[in-house]
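hey can u check if this looks right to u? its 140 residues, i copy pasted from the old doc so theres a chance i mangled smth
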Amino acid sequence: MTLHCYLNFDGTAEAAMRFYALALGGTLTEPHRFGAMPGAKLPEELKNRVMHVRLDLPDGQALLASDTLPGRGPAHVMGTNFSVSVHPSSRDEADRVFNALAEGGSVTVPLADQFWGAYFGALTDRFGVQWMVNQPAGPA
């Protein structure tokens, strides 16, 4: 089984996913737009919203996203219903990813050694998405 986090944005999915591609590495697919759906009857201002985009990350992981459509489906609540947990393979990579994601955001738990034996930090990025960076301790 593979687990992917699917993020929803209120019109900023493309900007957010380009930011994550820079911060995390990987390859971003071309966004699919709501306006390209067969029979789409949308106001002009909603046609360019992202229906689906995928960021293929190193080691086979992926991050998926879309924009919401106002008035269709649940109301968009920015960043309050999930966290994305990132597990880097080294302390240096943990620092790089954490600092990249924190740019323009707010740190809630600074990266530090934790009682459970990991190097951990938490933040909310500039798009309102909550992240946890958890780099497990190596062998004692």
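The longest helix spans residues 13-24.
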